[in-house]
Amino acid sequence: MMKTMKAIVVGAALLAAGAATAQAPTGDANRGRERVQMCQGCHGIVGWRTAFPEVYHVPKLSGQHAQYLVSALSAYKSGARSHPSMRAIAATLSEQDMADLAAYYAQSANPQPSTPAPKK
Amino acid sequence: MNISFEKISLVVAIAGTMLVASPVEAADINAGAAKAKEVCAACHGMEGNSPQPDYPKLAGQYPDFLAKALRDYKSGARKNPVMQGFAAALSRQDIDNLAAYYASQPAAVATRR
Question: How far is CA A13 from CA A1, A2, A16, A27, in A?
Answer without folding.
Answer: 18, 16, 5, 29
